[in-house]
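Late entry, written up from scratch paper. The run itself happened at the end of the previous shift, but nothing got recorded in the book at the time, so transcribing now.
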Amino acid sequence: MELYQLRTFQAVAESGNISRAAEQLNTSQPAVSAQIKALEDEFGTQLFIRTSKGVTLTEQGEEIQKR
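Output as recorded:
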């Protein structure tokens, strides 16, 4: 787990949108998606529920955000 991945996680959680988080972080949407996927793989759980309207934290994602 890298610090930039945690910053990305926080940006996505706050914005509720991967594309918006990518803009805030001055990076691409695929890069943000890859970082979130890497975190999910590392934690072994889904952190966000993805919909056509954006993303919301899962219970596990909320627990990680509290840390």
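The mean pLDDT is 94.
(Scratch paper discarded after transcription.)
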